[in-house]
Amino acid sequence: MRRANLSPLSIGGITPFSTIDFPDQLAAVLFCQGCPWRCRYCHNPHLLDHRVEPALSWAEVEQFLQSRRNLLEAVVFSGGEPLFQPGLLTAVQRVRQLGFKVGLQTAGINSRYFAKLLPDLDWVGIDIKAPLEDYAQITGISLSGKNPFQSIRLLLEAGIDYEVRTTVHPHLLTEPALLKLATTLAELGVQHYAVQMCRTVGCLDDSLPTGLPSRWIVDKTGFLQSLQTLIPDTIVR
């Protein structure tokens, strides 16, 4: 039987073994090439341009996965932005056919496509970057927050395991804005939240200030507790 054509799936790289990208599972991570956003704190600029020649063909990816059956438990599609990939759904379904659990790390940029993927996903890590009205100052794209918040609603309705994350650059997301975002997420029903402290050097936007305190949420008395009052399962990493 002829396999589905997965050529639209562009792979920018692979992590063969990871213990941190899918909770409690030994996973491989596939980095999808291309992203329509240009988040100012992005540290993976090599994965942004969808026109770059893929680092691996799907045939090479599948050959690797075939050799790791019964060793790996899961495959995580990351990026770049996986939802930017026309071939993602077919690839996800093929990975499941090989016997792996499937994880997705996404910014939720295409909620309609995301809805089609959800039945074939076992875990999702979804990045929510800011309150709705502040999205454009991070992504560089107007009205870019609408789809991510709809993706959150779809994810919670699906009932699969997840983690909502927010990356914080202290120049782009203030304390009041982060509290406002956490309030919105709590109202939507989010119960698992991770705040990720951004490195302030090496950002895509080199005009951003550097040398800023990287862990002000932890260091500032009572602030983490304020977040945990809203979403008790909140961690900082």
From TrEMBL:
InterPro entries in alphabetical order: Aldolase_TIM (IPR013785), NrdG2 (IPR012840), Organic_radical-activating (IPR034457), rSAM (IPR007197), rSAM_sf (IPR058240)
CDD domains (UniProt xref): Radical_SAM
Essential cofactor(s): [4Fe-4S] cluster
Keyword Disulfide bond recorded: no
Top-level taxon of origin: Bacteria
Domain Radical SAM core residue range list: 21-233
Single Gene Ontology MF annotation: 4 iron, 4 sulfur cluster binding
Keywords tagged on the record: 4Fe-4S, Iron, Iron-sulfur, Metal-binding, S-adenosyl-L-methionine
PANTHER family tied to this protein: GLYCYL-RADICAL ENZYME ACTIVATING ENZYME YJJW-RELATED (PTHR30352:SF13), PYRUVATE FORMATE-LYASE-ACTIVATING ENZYME (PTHR30352)
UniProt name for this protein: Radical SAM protein
Organism: Thioploca ingrica
